[in-house]
Specification:
The protein has a single domain, classed as Gcn5-related N-acetyltransferase (GNAT) (Aminopeptidase, 3-Layer(aba) Sandwich), CATH 3.40.630.30. The chain is about 30% helix and about 20% strand. The chain has 6 helices and 7 strands; from the N terminus they run αβααβββαβαβαβ. The protein has a 7-stranded mixed beta sheet with strand order 1-2-3-4-5-7-6. About 10% of the residues have low confidence.
Length: about 210
């Protein structure tokens, strides 16, 4: 499915990672769901569950006319298994689980030179609006800093509430088209097969340390 589908939305201000204000913000964002959810690395035997989450998350786009789901109008092509397997191998995929250890969301990243690219962010709709998307994104930002990337980047719909506006609350800013790197242009060409890329944008947020 298309990059960065997420069923959560926040309206909190953004502060530099690691600052006192950011620490307070993290506490605010995670206190409520903390007893019910936790973030952990994904396991290799969870491919099917992750694909089901991806499909369920994509249903939020039904009827919006933003994604071509084909003749049925229903999401039917989950994120490919090989992309998930690479995420397992690189240690760049994390899941959100509830108190019963049921998978309810995930974030998948990939190495793009100086950028850690957030390929997919998906949360089950029934677990939306509980801060899980925010917690998963912040886990990616922490990994980006730990691995000395310059930026965490992503591609998303510019105006859909749980896409571009959501990421802006977390400090991401749109990348002008003339500053897109070759690998981003390649992704955009692939997106043209199922989406109107004029409605999408690339965004990034710098992390403390860089390569």
């Amino acid at each position: 499915m298309p990059d960065n589908i997420c069923s959560t939305r926040v309206t909190k201000p953004t502060y530099p990672i690691g600052s006192q204000a950011d620490t307070s913000l993290m506490a605010t964002l995670t206190v409520d769901p903390a007893p019910l959810y936790r973030i952990r690395p994904a396991r290799g035997d969870e491919v099917g569950e992750l694909q089901n989450i991806d499909l369920a998350s994509a249903t939020l786009f039904r009827g919006l006319g933003l994604i071509d789901f084909g003749p049925t109008g229903e999401p039917s092509q989950p994120i490919p298994e090989d992309r998930l397997r690479k995420g397992f191998g690189d240690g760049l995929i994390w899941v959100a689980v509830d108190e019963m250890e049921e998978l309810v969301g995930f974030a998948l990243c990939s190495d793009r030179g100086e950028d850690l690219y957030l390929e997919q962010l998906s949360v089950l709709p029934r677990h939306g609006r509980k801060g899980l998307g925010t917690r998963l994104v912040r886990r990616c930002l922490q990994e980006g800093e730990a691995r000395s990337y310059k930026r965490v980047s992503l591609s998303t719909f510019r105006k859909v509430a749980w896409n571009g506006p959501f990421y802006r609350t977390l400090g991401f800013r749109e990348v002008p088209p003339w500053r897109l790197q070759d690998w981003q242009l390649e992704i955009r060409e692939l997106q043209k097969q199922t989406m109107d890329v004029r409605l999408r944008c690339f965004m990034h947020r710098r992390v403390k340390r860089g390569r």
